[in-house]
Each structure stands twice: as C-alpha cells, then as structure tokens.
Amino acid sequence: MTGWTPTWPDAVGFVGVALLIGAYAALQTGKLSSDAPAYSAANALAAVLIAFSLLFTFNAASMVIEVFWFAISLIGLYRSLKLRRANKSAQKDGAEE
User: Fold this and answer.
1) Whole-angstrom distance between the N-terminal and C-terminal Cα of the chain?
2) Residue 48, class by beta-carbon neighbours within 10 Å (0-12 exposed, 13-18 middle, 19+ buried)?
3) Buried-most residue among 6, 53, 63, 70 (CB within 10 A)?
4) pTM of the predicted model, to two decimals?
C-alpha cells in the first residue's frame, strides 16, 4: 500500500467537510437553528468547497450530491432571509402602533 499525501484541493475539501460537520453538530446541539441564515450559508459554502476538491479527483456521485446540497442550501438561505425580513417588518409595525 502506498502512502497518501494530501494536496491543496484535498485541504480545501477537508475545510468544507469540517464546516459541514460543524454546522450539523451546532444544529443537533441547539447552538444553531435550522432557520438561521448561518446554517444554510455554512452548508452552501461547504458544498462549494467539497465540489471544488472533486474537480481535481472527480467522483460523479459525490459531485451530484454536492450540487444538490448547494442548491437546497440556497433555497434554505433564501427562506431564512425572507423569514427574518418578515419578522423585522412585523416588529417594526408593532412598535409603531
């Protein structure tokens, strides 16, 4: 068996994996809400970093999951920002009454 030497694309991918695991751990331990924009943003960025590493060592199945992970995370980010805006608007309207 030969030794494995990580490359810089591997390092980028591992940063993405760490971000993904960190976001999921924060969600499961209650430190981050699934409605928080940071959760969806972290997932989207993680998918981009992992997909970048896959460009250098391609794996079709992994690339497909990262593309969908990114797209779904963008939907979540849009939803959470829209919800946040609606909540701020409702608070502002309530304060004016």
Assistant:
1) 73
2) middle
3) 53
4) 0.89
In single-letter form, the type of residue at position 51 comes to A
Cα Rg of the chain, angstroms: 18
pLDDT at res. 97: 61
Mean pLDDT on 61-72? 98
| Cα 7 versus chain centre, distance | 23
- Among left, alpha and beta (phi > 0; psi -120 to 50; other), residue 72 is alpha
**In the chain, pLDDT over 90 holds for what percent of residues?**
86
Q: Are 53 and 12 in contact (CB under 8 A)?
A: yes
> What is the rounded distance in angstroms from the CA atom of residue 76 to the CA atom of residue 42?
11
- Report in angstroms the alpha-carbon separations of 5 from 9, 10, 16, 18, 89: 11, 9, 18, 19, 52
pLDDT at 84: 93
User: Are the CB atoms for 55 and 9 separated by under 8 Å?
Assistant: yes
